[in-house]
Amino acid sequence: MIEPNRQGDVWVVAEQNDGELHDVGLELLSKGRELADRLGVKLAAVLLGAQVEANAQRLIQHGADRVIAGEHALLAHYQTNPYAKVIAQLIQEHRPQIVLFGATPLGRDLAPRVASTVRAGLTADCTDLDIGEHVEAHSSARYENLLYQIRPAFGGNIIATIVNPERWPQMATVREGVMRMPDADAKRRGEIVRFTPKLKPDDLALKILEHQRTTRKVNLKAARVIVAGGAGVGGKENFRLVWDLASALGAAVGASRAAVDSGWIDKDHQVGQTGTTVRPALYIAVGVSGAVQHRAGMSEAKKIVAVNSDPGAPIFGVAHYGIVGDLNRVLPMMIDAIKKRA
Amino acid sequence: MAYNLVVLVKQVPDTKRITGEAMRDDGTVNRSALPAIFNPEDLHALELALELRERYGGRVTVLTMGPPQACEVLRQSLERGADEAALITDRRAAASDTLATSYILACAVRKAAAEAPVDIVLCGRQAIDGDTAQVPPQTAEKLGWPQITYVDAVEEVAGRRLRAHRRTGAGWERVETSLPCLLTVTDEGPAPRPASAKRLMAVKKARARAEIQMEVGGAMPDASPEVRAAEVDKRAAALATKNLLIKQWTLDDINADPARCGRDGSPTKVKRIQSVVLKGSGFKKVEPTPEAVTSMIHELIEDHTIG
Known about the structure:
heterodimer, A: alpha/beta, Rossmann fold, 2 domains, 7-stranded parallel β-sheet, B: alpha/beta, two-stranded antiparallel sheet, 8 helices
């Protein structure tokens, strides 16, 4: 067990797949920067791989003061045990106060293994982080400057704030797409601490026989406008209208889980807790009832327009504009209005 | 070669059916107002275990941690074909976070291995109440075993080697590891079979001791503690002869250190819970007419939302 270290750094574990840096690591640097500045400590990124130089520079440009870069041929392709072993050793050696991971499939495979090794607390899938005090209810013990780990629970029906008062580091995985991506500053300077982890082939518990990366065909996270269809669209044919509206707006097409499960549209388009979290300037929800799992992925959009024939649909609860009506009539009106605007 | 398989399952509130009644005024969730169900992805883990037993032979043991009511998911596992089930129940385990829970489950797997070494532990990827997916990797770490997460198929188990297909989010992998190991199974894993009618009848009466105690307490409210205890013993013995007594383990039975369980063993504390309140009626109602829709589009253009 590791005692609290108030001088400890804030760490972001940056994820790279076969040499390519994952966006979530950069997103975490913006939040990590804010936390480190409030605590008056340094922000470090941990980067492991077979080659780390290029990505280490990028992490510095995006806000890291220091990159702890472990290079080893056995770290070329991610697998749980060697990565967890190296990160747990680094934590024991440097005693950071906060360690953040992306809540990606990789981060959610790795972080619990590390937390269990160092016997620290870990909060999954946070959507926000903050620094604050805490008074323990049963002992009245008071703690300053703890990490508030804020996350939805119970299928998104509640928001819980979690703290780790006594056993550090304070560890959390953070959902992709919820933190702002910082701008790169090519002039930013930082320190790269290179080391060669002690690993032997036995540390590789898995043999990766074959692997394939499928690139997402749609980039919902980058879209300024999203038109999303749900169960209310009623069928693949009707989804045509959703695509038509999106094309009139130059928007990306999103979907609720119900529409994906019905086979009307590919899973890459899914918005929500099990899909992509988006924060576009405009989100038009068509025939989306607005289950909590869906709202969790889109309620941060700046403007939300909901079109639904059911006036009681929960989607209206987060909407800025609500149109109760048949989408087969409303969507052509919208397309018409957009085309006539000039 | 036959394998000894252990499936870790959880009874969860059906969070997809949450209604206003399930939320208390202070914003906390009233779990008892929600239907309790078998965690959906755990059913896929159980199915994979049953299929492996059919392919290679062996035994399927199902473990759950929870109050006596959680025996319901153990009975449902027996109905689907599990060979054996055990309930881990102890007040000192209450309020365990994922770290403490994984410690308890790892102790329980070791206990299950006391009779015959366990080859594969299978879990659902995550539970729908917490959605953390943390307990299985933490359990694997405590056992010192390799983990393969997000498995949708086991291609082959040959001797002491297992090959699985897993989803990585950014694609897929085929991986091989040595036994013993722990797998987490997604809802893209094999579809759960229904309970067999024959098994359903056969295991309908299966009970853990804690459930018998509750039943006896209800049936003999005026009896003395001694009389009730004797009745519990009698009923438990009768079930045991029919192989219908669900095993029940306390922390002591599984050699768990109470300091690593429950509130004391949990580094994370819940500071605050807020219910998600919909902003409600905060939206501008737009009539489904061409004029109203056009005026909305104009507003969105004017405030530079689109343009």
